[in-house]
Amino acid sequence: MHRIIVLALFILLAACSDVEPASTSSLVGEPPETASTATTTEASVTSSTAVGSSSTTTTEGATTTTTTLTPLTGLVYEKVADGLSFPVFVDAPAGDDRLFVATKDGQVHIITDGATLVEPFLDVSEQTNNEGEQGLLGLAFHPDYATNGLFYVHYSDRHGDTKIFEYRVSSNPDLADPETARLLLVVTQPAGNHNGGMLAFGPDGYLYIGLGDGGGSGDRYGNGQRPDTVLSALLRIDVDEGDPVGGDAYGIPPDNPFVDGGGAAEVWAYGLRNPWRFSFDGDLLYIGDVGQNKWEEIDVASAGAAGLNYGWPIMEGTHCFSPSSGCNTAGLNLPVIEFSHPDGCSVTGGYVYRGRAIPELAGRYFYSDYCGGWLRSFVYENGAATDQQDHTGEVGALVSVTSFGTDALGEIYVTTAGGDVWRLVPKR
Ligand SMILES: [Ca+2]
Q1: What is the CATH number of the domain that holds 126?
Q2: For the chain, which terminus, N or C, has the lower number of CB atoms within 10 Å?
Q3: Per-residue pLDDT band at 248 (split at 50, 70, 90)
Q4: How remote is the CA of residue 383 from the centroid of ligand 1, in Å?
Q5: Are 94 and 145 in contact (CB under 8 A)?
Q6: pTM of the entire structure?
């Protein structure tokens, strides 16, 4: 069993070395001693599921619910599903109370009312090369999914090349219509690893796509500092524009940094080694960029900052990589968090908590590591990661953390390669 896990680690993280077993780190800071107050204002009547007393006032159609919560004594993982085949992501469309779980073998499963539906929402396993770091890697719902039924997937095709497809839901809300597949983007992948994988809509309504450096190790294909390639980059495209007749499957936002030259029109940021997971929180962008074999990093930037260079392969984390000393760091956007191997082997970027169940965590970014299995967090303030905490003592270490995800209410979930989906819940 141990051997299987280690093999899986090696396959997923081919460029990483010195894999160590998961370790449990120190406990989080002291739990708050006083009761917290959560206030939510909605356009419609809001009910609260939080423990404690609540009072509701209504003014001109808006309802404000104030809930006095019992003090938070800790955090725990609550299992939501198990037995899935290498889940890699959790997401939900806005306003939807279902959970959608992407599995690396090419399926999207729906969890509703505490159960995983037997029939997958989408099955592209026949089109997907589910080997090593390849497979179905990302999923994003259109911000207007409730009305247009559109969603996007990022997978490795049978040749190992990256494909981004648009699909539409069928007349059955629990089934996608495979006939609606619309190919947006094909990217040739020179090696099997570092495919990126993340898809997410930004606050601007554009679709962002994370792509790695093409694989191998040490940026051997030289894509890191080349904004004229879509590899080693965060792409930004407009899925609502495009000219199907003219062959353009998507539009280019007019304020993309290289729209007038100097780089590929789709590129929003570059110098990323393998941005496996990234997320937006308000006007901030958080990226977990997987390191070579020494340093893992979390980057935070203004979501509106175009053309940022995240440094790979000049730097790995905050350290010179190529050259190994005396590198020129001018103009590079450096990480706010780094941790070394074997504290981890492959960072798993997460989310800022914006849910309702644990208002004490509002504004706190959670992340983990595939090998480390721990749960850590920080609050980004004045350009730095502040109030860093380690929650592993409370929630326990997980084995092979593949991803974080959120539901429509902003609650945070974690997936593991072994097939589990966990929700982060409060102890009060
Ligand atoms: Ca970097």
Answers
A1: 2.120.10.30
A2: N
A3: confident
A4: 16
A5: yes
A6: 0.87
Sign of CA dihedral 391, 394, 399, 404: negative
Q: What's the 227 CA to ligand 1 centre distance in angstroms? A: 15
Question: How many A from CA of 56 to the centre of ligand 1?
Answer: 47
Domain end marker among 12, 44, 69: 69
Instruction: Specify whether 211 is located in the same domain as 273.
Output: yes
7 and 49 co-located in one domain: no
Measured in angstroms, how far is the CA atom of residue 226 from the centroid of ligand 1? 14
Residues 248 and 386 in one domain: yes
**Confidence band (pLDDT; 50, 70, 90) for 41?**
very low
Same domain, 80 and 117: yes
> Could you report how far apart the first and last alpha carbons of the chain are, in Å?
36
Could you tell me the distance, in angstroms and rounded to a whole number, from the CA of residue 376 to the centre of ligand 1?
19
The pLDDT tens digits for 292-319 are 999 999 999 999 999 999 999 999 999 9
Give tens-digit pLDDT for 124-145: 999 999 999 999 999 999 999 9
Percent of the chain with pLDDT over 70: 83
**Ligand 1 centroid distance, CA of 393 (Å):** 29
Query: 270 and 408 in one domain?
Result: yes
Residues with CB under 5 A from ligand 1 (ion): 310-311
How far is the centre of ligand 1, averaged over its atoms, from the C-alpha of 150 (Å)?
Answer: 32
Centre of ligand 1 from the C-alpha of residue 309, in Å = 8
Tens digits of residue pLDDT in 272-284: 999 999 999 999 9
Residues 58 and 185 grouped into a single domain: no
Q: How far is CA 234 from CA 125, 199, 308, 371, in A?
A: 26, 10, 10, 24
Query: Both 57 and 77 in a single domain?
Result: no
Which residue carries 């590129």 as its tokens? 267
Listed residues 69, 88, 115: the one ending a domain: 69
Residue 169 alpha carbon to ligand 1 centre in Å: 37
Whole-angstrom CA distances from 41 to 53, 71, 295, 331 are 17, 22, 42, 42
Question: Domain check: are 53 and 97 in the same one?
Answer: no
- Give the structural domain span for 48: 36-69
Give the pLDDT of residue 242: 76
